[in-house]
Write a structure and sequence with these properties.
Layout lengths: L4 E7 L3 H15 L3 E3 L8 E6 L4 H20 L4 E6 H6 L1 H6 L5 E3 L7 H9 L4 E3 L22 E5 L1 E2 L10 H5 L3 E2 L2 H13 L4 E5 L7 E4 L2 E4 H9 L6 E5 L8 H9 L6 E3 L7 H6 L6 H14 L4 E8 L6 H14 L3 E6 L7 H5 L6 H26 L3 E9 L6 E5 L5 E5 L8 E9 L3 E6 L4
5'-deoxyadenosine binds next to β15.
């Protein structure tokens, strides 16, 4: 049998891109390519890219320079750019980066084998068509690089929210949901392979909707179906848009032990004035009401968020509103970013990127310090509590320790004893930092 060619995929950006890279590996595997973890062995290098902030694109550009050197030494090497940057820049990328052979956007991965043939015959190849219905539902992703315990399942693609700052609706196209049966089947398959946790992914999972034979499946129903795969399969989801987070969903989460008590609810800003400019379609009051509802239905639920500092027109007053909201919400975790203007977005067209870089940086420092304090407060409250931890692997610092996560998505480290990845272990928390909980196994009596 002829040996398969080797592909190395480097993934940038969000969980959705990690999931896409697995779909890409699967498509290529069926066309005589196998993944390699060693870039130097690769016949083909793909970079699955992100455009969300300018620095994400700059990182890819830098890496491309390194790949250029590699290609000079090995001229047969094929280099392809996939994902959001490919979609955003299209042919321009081929003009700017002469050593790129192939460009494919997020909806064009089925055409990769044909594009590679084109490259094989000496041409450059490009496909950046967006689709209204592509969900890759029938493709069984290859999961080689993960931990074998936790996996992502993409349940929808695209986004039509058009937040003023965001490039995603332009790079990932129209919102579309995937057939629920294919989602449940994928979860079953993963469980049989030994996976114990799935995260259902979409830009706004609360707007998931599938209609077939006059039956409409919405997200709470889909979530319930996935929980039924097995009580030992944990289910997470991301991301929820605050405007669509319903009490129905909270009730479903409360009703099932294997739905993790952790909600990622990006607020972006604590100022209603900023939220309006950002086109988020909710106010500070709406958001705080949603958080109160989470606390009511799910008293032990962790809440995490995304925050942008220095969006167009943001004043010190707006910034203070963000800090006060953070303290009020007592976030367990936050992803925090400086606003980066993206070409062709609503904000780029309508507003001036007018907050000076020094102010953006200082405000980012302020919110990072605030979150550091809140994460530590949150973790300290857990000392003395017992959590069921799903073991994900052996601690990098010590082979005698294991790490895993509790339902609230917090990392827990404890002594290994006889356990292995995939086990559920009851751990009593003894100490913490802002980032980690440490504890000891509780023996069942
Ligand atoms: N600049 C900075 N952060 C951004 N995000 C999205 N677009 C931008 C931008 N232009 C952040 C948001 C979003 C997260 C995935 O990235 O907080 O929730
Ligand atoms: Fe993911 Fe958005 Fe980056 Fe695209 S631009 S990879 S959707 S984070």
């Amino acid at each position: 049998m002829e040996e398969k060619k080797k592909v190395y995929i480097e993934t940038y950006g969000c969980q959705m891109n990690i999931s896409d890279s697995e779909i890409i590996e699967s498509i290529l595997y069926n066309h005589d390519y196998e993944p390699t973890a060693d870039m130097k062995m690769a016949d083909l290098i793909f970079m699955n890219t992100c455009s969300i902030r300018d620095n994400a694109e700059q990182r890819v550009r830098k890496r491309l320079n390194e790949l250029h050197a590699l290609k000079r030494r090995k001229p047969s090497l094929v280099i392809g750019i996939l994902g959001c940057m490919a979609e955003r820049l299209k042919e321009k990328l081929l003009e700017e980066e002469k050593h790129i052979d192939l460009i494919a956007g997020p909806d064009a991965y089925r055409s990769l084998p044909q594009l590679l043939e084109q490259v094989g015959s000496g041409q450059k190849a490009i496909n950046t068509l967006l689709s209204a219905d592509e969900t890759y539902a029938d493709i069984n992703p290859v999961r080689l690089s993960g931990n074998g315990i936790t996996a992502f399942i993409s349940i929808m693609r695209g986004c039509e929210n058009f937040c003023a700052y965001c490039v995603v609706p332009y790079t990932r196209g129209k919102e579309r949901s995937r057939n629920p049966k294919s989602i449940v089947d994928e979860a079953k398959g993963l469980f049989q392979q030994g996976f114990r946790e799935v995260t259902l992914l979409g830009q706004n999972v609360n707007s998931y909707r599938w209609e077939e034979n006059e039956i409409i499946t919405k997200f709470p129903m889909l979530l319930e179906e996935v929980t039924r795969v097995d009580p030992k399969l944990r289910v997470r989801f991301a991301t929820s848009h605050p405007k669509d987070l319903s009490d129905d969903l909270l009730k479903v989460i409360a009703a099932h032990d294997n739905i993790c008590k952790s909600i990622h609810l990006p607020v972006q800003s604590g100022s209603s004035r900023m939220l309006k400019l950002m086109n988020r379609n909710y106010t500070r009051e709406w958001y705080t009401e949603r958080v109160e509802s989470i606390r009511k239905h799910l008293p032990d639920c962790a809440i995490s968020t995304d925050i942008i500092t220095g969006f167009s027109g943001e004043t010190e007053e707006d910034h203070k509103d963000t800090l006060s909201l953070m303290r009020w919400a007592e976030y367990d975790y936050a992803f925090m970013f400086k606003y980066s203007e993206r070409p062709n977005t609503i904000a780029a067209k309508k507003y001036k990127d007018d907050v000076p870089e020094t102010d953006k940086s200082r405000r980012l420092d302020d919110i990072i310090a605030m979150q550091q304090e809140l994460s530590l407060i949150s973790n300290k409250k857990d000392v003395g509590k017992v959590f069921e931890v799903l073991v994900e692997g052996v601690s990098k610092r010590s082979s005698e320790k294991l790490y895993g996560r509790n339902s609230q998505n917090k990392v827990v480290v404890f002594l290994r004893a006889h356990h292995n990845p995939g086990d559920y272990v009851k751990v009593r928390i003894e100490s913490c930092t802002a980032a980690t909980l440490r504890g000891a196994e509780v023996q069942d009596t």
